[in-house]
Amino acid sequence: MSSQPVGCLGFIFRLFPQPSAEPPRGAGLPKVMISNRFVTSAEADFFRVLQRVVGPRGHVLAQVSLKQLLFLPGNYQSNPGRASWQNKVDKRSIDFLICHPATLKPLLAIELDEPSHSRPERQSRDAEVEGLLIAADLPFIRVLAGGIRENSTTSSHRISPHHNHDVD
């Protein structure tokens, strides 16, 4: 073991053994792999840009599951359509979420519009996600390759405070 200081992350990583060539499998567990579609190269590039732009004013999260972000209260009687929308929420994610640096409260959702977003089925999915975010009162913008386009239903006064808040 080196006598050179490694910091707290270095210490944490030392706690984990190096992965073996063949990880152990539980009873009936199928082969599992990391998806090569987790983030696209455009999303990875934009993530780095967002980190620089946001800086210490917030945390940038990538590929955030709407199931973890949104809550549909009640049941099918008190909240009609809840079950149908819950199924949609469970299967969707947003590309980026900017959160408050101290509380991790969601401040702004961002969807990166790549060429796949021009397909009709993708536009339908995007409209559903946009509707859910608006219903949750979470500011939302779409970013096109080559520039930022503000979501037509989200006014700039709702977005601006999240970009300019002070860190306590």
Description:
The chain has 168 residues and is α+β, with helices and mostly antiparallel strands. It has one domain (39-164). It is 36% helix and 18% strand. The chain has 6 helices and 5 strands. It has helices at residues 7-15, 41-54, 66-69, 82-90, 120-135, 156-164; strands at residues 59-65, 93-99, 106-113, 140-144, 147-149. It has a 5-stranded mixed beta sheet with strand order 1-2-3-4-5, with helices on both faces. β2 (93-99) and β3 form a beta hairpin. The radius of gyration is 20 Å and the shape is globular.
Could you name the key traits of this structure?
5-stranded mixed sheet; globular; 168 residues; 5 strands; single chain; alpha+beta; 18% strand
List the helices and strands and how they pair.
Blueprint: H1 7-15, H2 41-54, E1 59-65, H3 66-69, H4 82-90, E2 93-99, E3 106-113, H5 120-135, E4 140-144, E5 147-149, H6 156-164
Parallel strand pairs: 3-4
Antiparallel strand pairs: 1-2, 2-3, 4-5
